[in-house]
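Need residues for this backbone.
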């Protein structure tokens, strides 16, 4: 019955919140800011903080007060941007269907065994205020789609013109395909310990040079996770590996074995499997990624211009301390 009553009343909530009558859905003390009359609540701020927090916890599971303050500012900035979008939606008479709000509410409700547990989890915020928050979130997304996404248009001619003008950006560097065996060396080890490991690496190199199966040698002897695929490092470009490793590779021919090669990780025995010289990537190879890149840049420019216009248009009121 509680859920039924809430469902009948829920269609009124969006309008109440968005027209500034937020006191009918949440107490004035719960509002941390307003953008052109659109409210941001402390409950929304807490949820936004919780979204960001997991990415900022240290190895020891701690977060400094300075970091917490920074996260809160990030969360508030995100919510202010959302409120600008909502205010734009109101001005442009953009709306969200009630069914979309109910569908989103159902996702949250499904995490609980009963409606009563769901309402209990919402605490002082309550169903109406939470639903209003969901409505504003969906409305902001729709506003952004109308104002920004619909304006992103990159033609085939623009993609081709950019490629022709910037061909030098689409040169593939020298590419290697190689396998290796790593004899790991602890930087804190003694000279005597390093000498033992060097001798081991030299023995493995001699076995590989003599024609023993490189896959098996790597699988049973390498100290690197690539051992499980026979030391296979896959394809990589010039500049993507440590200098000592690359210096050896550029002097090799496919099928050759070199080593031991000393790097910061230890001693490597390397087998060059394939070598592809630098070449110009043709238009067909890059056009899809190029289009995505141009669309992304265009979208960023449209978004920034839109948001700057909204910030100049609508006033922000701050009530948080």
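Answer:
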């Amino acid at each position: 019955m509680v859920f039924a009553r809430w469902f009948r009343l829920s269609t009124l909530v969006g309008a109440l919140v968005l027209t500034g009558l937020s006191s009918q859905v949440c107490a004035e003390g719960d509002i941390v800011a307003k953008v052109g009359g659109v409210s941001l609540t402390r409950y929304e701020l807490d949820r936004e903080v919780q979204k960001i927090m997991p990415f900022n916890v240290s190895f020891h599971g701690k977060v400094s007060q300075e970091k917490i303050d920074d996260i809160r500012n990030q969360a508030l900035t995100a919510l202010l941007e959302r409120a600008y979008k909502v205010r734009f939606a109101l001005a442009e008479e953009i709306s969200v269907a009630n069914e979309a709000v109910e569908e989103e509410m159902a996702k949250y409700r499904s995490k609980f065994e009963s409606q009563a547990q769901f309402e209990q989890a919402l605490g002082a915020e309550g169903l109406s205020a939470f639903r209003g928050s969901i409505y504003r979130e969906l409305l902001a997304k729709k506003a952004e789609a109308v104002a920004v996404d619909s304006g992103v248009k990159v033609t085939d001619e623009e993609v081709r013109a950019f490629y022709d003008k910037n061909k030098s950006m689409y040169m593939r560097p020298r590419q290697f395909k190689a396998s290796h065996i790593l004899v790991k060396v602890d930087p804190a080890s003694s000279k005597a310990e390093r000498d033992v490991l060097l001798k081991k690496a030299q023995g493995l190199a001699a076995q590989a040079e003599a024609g023993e199966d490189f896959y098996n040698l790597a699988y049973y002897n390498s100290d690197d996770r690539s051992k499980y695929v026979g030391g296979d490092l896959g394809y990589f470009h010039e500049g993507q590996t440590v200098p000592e490793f690359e210096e050896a590779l550029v002097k090799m021919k496919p099928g050759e074995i070199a080593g031991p090669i000393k790097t910061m990780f230890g001693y490597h025995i390397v087998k060059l499997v394939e070598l592809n010289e630098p070449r110009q990537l043709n238009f067909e190879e890059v056009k899809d990624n190029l289009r995505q890149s141009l669309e992304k840049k265009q979208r960023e420019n449209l978004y920034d211009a839109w948001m700057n216009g909204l910030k100049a248009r609508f006033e922000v009121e701050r009530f948080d301390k």
